[in-house]
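Good morning N.,

You mentioned wanting to compare the apo and holo forms, so I went ahead and generated the holo version with glutathione. This is what I fed in:
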Amino acid sequence: MTNAAETLILHHYAMSPFSEKVRVILGLKSAQWRGCDQPVVMPKDALLVLTGGYRRIPVLQIGADLYFDTTRIIDEIERRVPLPSAYAGVGRGMASAVTGWTDAWAGQPGLFWTGVVALFSGDFDVAEDPAFAADRAALLGMPFDGAAMMAALPETERQLRGCLDLLERQLGDGRQFLFGSQLDIADAGAFHTINFLRYGRGRNVRILEEFPRLLAWEARVRAVGHGCRGEDVSREEAIAIARAATPAPLERKSVHADLPSGTAIRLSYNDANTPPLDAVLLAADHQFISVSPATSQVGDLVIHMPYSTARISKR
Ligand SMILES: N[C@@H](CCC(=O)N[C@@H](CS)C(=O)NCC(=O)O)C(=O)O
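and this is what came out, ligand included:
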C-alpha cells in the first residue's frame, strides 16, 4: 500500500447507496483503497471537520485533499487510475445526464428517489427508527413521512416498475452492461439503488424479480467487486493523516472572469441545516471548484466539489 498521504480513503458506511456507486468504480479499476466508517446519522463531527460542514456520504480523502460528491470522486479516481475508464460507454458528457436519472434526489424523477420511497414505505427496518427519520427530515428540510409514503404505495410501485422497465429495455439487445460491453459509471449509478432495495424486507425484491435481464446484469455488476480494499482507517487516524499532509499541488486557475482564483467566497450547501463554508477559491473549471476553507481545525485543506453541491457568493 502507498504512503498515508497518497492512500485513497473512502469515508462511507456499508449500506450507503452512493458509496456503493464509488465502490463499484473502485472495483472496475481494481484500485487500492481504505475505508473510514462514518455514522449513518448526525452527529458526524469527525467528518465535518474535514469537509467544512458537508455531511453527506461518501467523501474521498487523499491526504489533505477532500472530494465530494460521487461525480467529483469518480472524476478523481479516473484521473489517478485511467483504465478501464469509468466513462467507457456512456461518455464523459452524457455521464452527468444519465446519472442525473440514476441518482435522482427528492423531487426529481428517476431511479434513486423512486427506490428510496419504495423502500421506506414499509419495506425497511431502518426507516422505522424515529431517530433516522428525524435525521433525514433535517437533511431534506421537509418531513420524511413514512405514513404519507405508504399511502402513495400503488403509485410508487408503478413508478418503480417504470424505472426498472427502462433498464430492462436498455439491456434488451443482449448487451452486458447499460452502454455496451464494459461496465461504466451508468452501471454503477443504476446498481446502487438496485442493491439498496435488497436491504429491505423483500417486497421490492419481488418486484425486481419481474425483470430477468436486469437481474442477470445486477449479478454481473456485483461480480466486479470493490477492488483492493485495505485495512480500515479509524476516524481519528483519517484526521491525523489530513493534519500531517500538505494539499496536492494545484494549478490556481479559474475559468470565471468574475470569480478569479483567490476570491474570498461563501459556499451555501444545498442541504438543509448545513452551515455555510467561508473559503478562498483556488481553481474552477466548468464542472468543479477547488477551495481552501478560511478556517480549519486540521491545518491546510483543499476541498473539491461540483457546482451542484453549494451556491457560491462573494464575501
Ligand atoms: N449527490 C450526492 C448524494 C450523496 C447522498 O445523498 N448520500 C446519502 C447516503 S448514500 C447521504 O449522505 N445521506 C445522508 C447521510 O448519510 O448522512 C453524491 O453523488 O454523492
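The chain is about 40% helix and 15% strand.

Happy to go through it together on a call whenever suits you.

Best,
F.
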